[in-house]
Amino acid sequence: MKAARRLFGFFTVLPLSSSGSVEDVARAGFLLPLVAVLLGGIEGLVGWGSGWLLGQPVAAAAMLATALLLTGLHHTDGLADLGDALMVHGDSARRIQVLKDRTMGVGAVSAMLITSLISWAALLQLLALRGTGSELVWLLMAGEISARLGMLMVIAAGRPSHDGTGRIFLEEMKGWRIAAGILLSIASLALVAIFIPMAGVLAAAVAAAATGLFLAAAGRHWLGGCGGDVLGAAVELGRMAALLALVAVLIHTG
Question: What distance in Å separates the CA atoms of residue 81 and residue 144, rounded to the nearest whole number?
Fold first, then answer.
């Protein structure tokens, strides 16, 4: 329980934190799917309620805002930094220098805008397809679990690019911890699939996992490895990919 509280305290703004170092949090990282289940459940309930009260466009925005705010914009910051770094011409050392820069450029703004816009549109489509019942909650859980699976795939396939929080997670979560995290993600998704189409859950998981593997490869190519910003971007891009996969399956299978 203490490990889980540390993890929730680090990855969310929920008042559940327990004392411990970043290394302690990283060693509890295999429990990330549990964080995803709670966040997805809250987001789904927000969408369900706001959809009834305010309509689907506002509900889609409310769900996305909830996803971003509950994580303290932590992953969004990583996406923004990565967007700026990939705009830079130069070697990996120069790009890592930009990653650490606190100012925001056009790459950061574009990365956040494009990802948020596509995610909002996918959420709006989910509401149109499945927005009248509790199924929406399970769909959002599937999206968030898949997004964390994408992060876990970066950790499994990536290597550290520089010192920082990302290095700690990449080093502490190797071995049985990363295997346990991936297996727990799969088990969580299997349970969610009891309530929503299995094909949609499978598509969401594959899309987010593929996104994570792509980011691990891209990080190695552009940055010499992966850091905390790549891990954060994996969640935001993985969620977007998972939502798009869910929408595609629901549209074409009914």
Answer: 21
Q: What are φ and ψ of residue 160, in 5° steps? A: -65, 140
Domain that holds residue 101: 33-253
- Quote the percentage of the chain above a pLDDT of 70: 97
Residues in the chain: 254
225-to-28, 74, 162, 198 alpha-carbon distances in Å: 22, 20, 8, 34
Sign of the C-alpha dihedral computed for residues 130, 133, 135 and 139 taken in this order: positive
Tell me how far apart the alpha carbons of residues 254 and 251 are, in angstroms, rounded to a whole number.
Answer: 6
pLDDT single digits (tens) 131-186: 777 899 999 999 999 999 999 999 999 888 888 888 999 999 988 999 999 999 99
Q: Establish if 50 belongs to a structural domain.
A: yes
Spatial CB neighbours of 2, under 8 Å, sequence gap ≥ 6: 18, 20
- 24 assigned to some structural domain: no
Distance CA 35, CA 143 (A): 12
Please write the tens of the pLDDT for every residue from 225-238. Answer: 898 899 999 999 99
Dist. CA 235–CA 149, nearest whole Å: 8
Residues β-bridged to residue 226: 160
- Residue 160 bridge partners (DSSP): 226
In the chain, how many domains are there? 1
Say whether pTM exceeds 0.85.
Answer: yes
Report yes or no on 5 lying in a domain. Answer: no
Backbone angles phi, psi at 196, to 5 degrees: -135, 165
Residue 13 lies inside a defined structural domain of this protein = no
Instruction: Identify the sign of the CA torsion 63, 123, 103, 216.
Output: positive
Q: Residue 43, CB half-sphere, CA atoms under 13 Å: how many? A: 30
Q: Say if residue 38's pLDDT is above 90.
A: yes
